[in-house]
Amino acid sequence: MIRRLVVLVLLVGGAVLLEPLRAPTEGVIAPRSLFLFGILLLTADTFGAIAHDLRLPRLVGYLVAGLALGPSVSEIVPAGVLEDLGMMKRLAVGLIGLLAGAELRIADLRQRHRLILLVLIFQTAAVLLVLLGASLLLRDWLPFLKALSNDQMFFVALLFAVILTVNSPMVTLALLTETRAAGPLARTTLGVVLVADVIIILLFTGAFSLAQASLGGATAGAPEILLRLLREVLGSILAGGIIGGVLTLYLRFVKRELVVFAVVVVFATAAAAPALHFEFLLSMLVAGFLVENVAPVRAEPLVDVLHQAALPVFVVFFAMAGAELHIQEFAAVWPVVLLIAFARMAAIYGSTTYAGRLARAEPDVIRYGWTGLVSQAGVALGLATIVADRLPGVGLAMQAVTIGVIAFNESVGPILFRHGLLRAGEVTTP
Amino acid sequence: MQTTLAALAVITVGYILAYLVFDRLRDRFGYVGGAEYVIIGFLLGPRMTGLLGAAEVQDLTPIVSLALGWLGMLLGTYFRLPALARIDTSHLRIAFTEALATFGFALAALLALFHYVLGYAWPEAIVQAVTLAAVATLSSAAAVDALTRRHRPVSPLVPVLQFTARIDALIAVAAFGLLLAIFHQGQVSLTVRPPTATEWAVINLAVGVSSGVLFHLFLGPGRHSDEGQGSRLFVALAGAIVVASGASYYLNLSPIYTNLVLGFILANSGAHRDVTRLLLNTERPVYLALLIFAGAAWSPSSPELLFVAPLFVLIRLAARFAGGWVAGALSAPPVLRTPWLGRALLAQGGIAVALAVNYTQVRPDLNGDLILTATLVSVLLFDIVASREVSQLVSTTPEDGDLSRVNEGGGRELLTP
């Protein structure tokens, strides 16, 4: 490992030495971004290996690598470079979504529907209530609640709680891929986080509209909100159906160069999503689910190539996610961030354990089910950014705390889930 | 919304039509190219539906530079010194004669075209002519490989053709790399003296060598053959290629050349057979990704295209036949003698597209569209006829039994790393 770290230092040093000879065609390409993207990949790979040696999930290493090189710490990879590489991250999100959908088997859902439903209901309700209560109790320490009236405070706190209810399909899938876990705990967690993703989009849109209305911003009436909500979700499902249909036809009649075709489909979907007003990740999830479970073709070839491409995709996603973490914001409000993070964790633990008992789940699922639901990553960060963009003032202040909690959950969650999978005996490649 | 839906419909219908046409060619002629992917890229790109706008096409640069470097590195890994040392001298003679003669003929014709016919000054004419001569010299062993997979035993010409294709690529990439160094574009920092052409050439080589040494150290001596290790090796290699390509772009040099040197060093550093295997396994998707990008970046607007692109195809055909004749009829031993060697080297493959894309990135000011169009037209046309020409030539030469008289060495080893 030391040899690898020395090589990385030499590479960065070499780039500094070459700086006076720099004569790039900046208009066409961004050589600096490219070079630093390579450094980010190599560092993430190295840190992933170090994390693995320390018996931690590799993705924690990828996150730490991104954090170490990103704007928060060394600024070797500045924010502008991350913007240049935005398309790479979207590609990663799309491919992970497709794979996640394909991993969700209808037979598992049928078999475990009662447990998944109960965990979803109890987890969502418990986290919402606990975080809403905690936010209101800690209002004097939460900068985004300080100057608000009681009504405003309630709705903004509700929005804050909804964002922190989100789980992470990315982390779950990355860990399941890394550990090749496939037991009851793995299948239940995957089912919960994927279905929860759909529910959260609905909850977030509702909570956001209420908060916006209470703050006096331009907002639509309730029927209009509901209509927009339904249109977005149904549109995503419809888009997922169409993408699934295209993939099915391709698997049926062409069945060649699957990885290239999957990448093209993801790019085309990413480009079409904003124009057609549907949710990119949800549509890819639906497409993957339909191809695996509904389409009259064998989806294994596609799932196999997605699995083969999974590790590089996870490295790109988590290294960039790590680089985008702002730990300065965490440092400024860390006591309150930790309080909220632990309150959330306690709510997840209590609700999941209770739901597991109620559904008479396997003992390991009851005991360790909560470990897979602590992680947060891309979706939660995305929602925090939407709030910051659309509710300036309150949103920006909220983002600092939200990102702090997400950063904590993103770092601790994978470690807990790996531990849970290990204790449940579901890990096949420790 | 309607525009987006229409764009998606155009792309779907376009792809289906292209697939049907080229699938027929695949069945009838053993077509090995990927023209339908150029068409997808073109349909997605800003010139047609605009679903991938100019900004998005630019955002794809990391993937494209990875693809350029990937192909360059793969080429470099073919040249393992122990295997090269065992190659029969007649094979070496044929391969280098064919490559240099083809390059020379193409360069002479293209220089005349750009300077005397199109009226460019010598420096501009040289830059464009050398680039297109390099593209013309490139040949791909894909059609030959496809033939050997279908029919065994095969002619003793097969290993010669496979080796010659590698040497063609080596000469082309080296020529293009040197061109970008000698006719270097861009202003360096005011604090240093601008390097001379020779110094740029040395810097280019030094970037490749130092990248090779560093990544040899980075990858370490371990084997990477199981599935998980393979994926991690993919990440490390992708990182290495992107870093080396980024360094080349930094200096406005060729990432293909840099990665060729990097691949050569990794292949000869002992413990990296897995690297070559991984590069080979992923060559096809990388090539197709490059074709999609080339299609998206393709902007055939200049009126010169109507004239230059077909003329380039004719020049390449003539140069290939002439180079093949010089090598096959004049410098080959009797058992390998054929005046039609060039017929079996018509396919161009991924590196031709890579060179053209690289040219459009580093010299967009000097007919980037023209070079890309001429290359794409040539690649697409020659890929269609290549397989048929290979099988016709190979069927007229004696079978593999005679191979032992020609080559007792390791020619095949070089080709199957």
Question: What is shown here, in short?
Answer:
The complex is a heterodimer of chains A (430) and B (417). Chain A has helices at residues 2-18, 31-53, 58-69, 79-84, 86-103, 106-137, 150-163, 169-179, 184-214, 222-253, 258-276, 280-293, 300-323, 327-332, 334-358, 363-368, 378-390, 394-423. With 430 residues, chain A is mainly α.
Structure keywords:
heterodimer; A: 430 residues; mainly alpha; Na+/H+ antiporter like fold; 18 helices; B: 417 residues; 19 helices; globular; disordered C terminus
Could you give the topology of this structure?
The complex is a heterodimer of chains A (about 425) and B (about 425).
Chain A: H1 2-18, H2 31-53, H3 58-69, H4 79-84, H5 86-103, H6 106-137, H7 150-163, H8 169-179, H9 184-214, H10 222-253, H11 258-276, H12 280-293, H13 300-323, H14 327-332, H15 334-358, H16 363-368, H17 378-390, H18 394-423
Helix pairs in contact in A: 1-2, 2-3, 2-13, 3-13, 5-11, 5-12, 5-13, 6-7, 6-9, 6-15, 7-9, 8-9, 8-13, 8-18, 9-10, 10-11, 10-12, 15-18, 17-18
Chain B: H1 2-29, H2 35-44, H3 54-59, H4 61-77, H5 81-85, H6 89-117, H7 122-137, H8 142-150, H9 157-182, H10 197-219, H11 227-250, H12 255-268, H13 273-281, H14 283-297, H15 304-330, H16 350-362, H17 368-395, H18 403-406, H19 411-415
Helix pairs in contact in B: 1-2, 2-14, 4-11, 4-12, 4-13, 4-14, 4-16, 6-7, 6-9, 6-15, 7-9, 7-15, 7-16, 8-17, 9-10, 9-12, 10-11, 10-12, 11-12, 14-16, 15-17, 16-17
Describe this structure in words.
The complex is a heterodimer of chains A (430) and B (417). Helix content of chain A is 77%, strand content 0%. Chain A has 430 residues and is mainly alpha-helical. Chain A has a domain at 93-316 and 352-423: Up-down Bundle (Na+/H+ antiporter like fold), CATH 1.20.1530.20. In chain A, helix 5 (86-103) crosses helix 11 (258-276), helix 6 (106-137) packs across helix 9 and helix 9 (184-214) packs antiparallel against helix 10 (222-253). With 417 residues, chain B is mainly alpha-helical. Chain B has a single domain (62-415), classed as Na+/H+ antiporter like fold (Up-down Bundle). In chain B, 74% of the residues lie in helices and 0% in strands. Chain B has 19 helices and no strands. Chain B has helices spanning 2-29, 35-44, 54-59, 61-77, 81-85, 89-117, 122-137, 142-150, 157-182, 197-219, 227-250, 255-268, 273-281, 283-297, 304-330, 350-362, 368-395, 403-406, 411-415. In chain B, helix 14 crosses helix 16. Chains A and B meet through helix 1, helix 2, helix 5, helix 11 and helix 13 of A and helix 1, helix 2, helix 3, helix 4 and helix 10 of B.
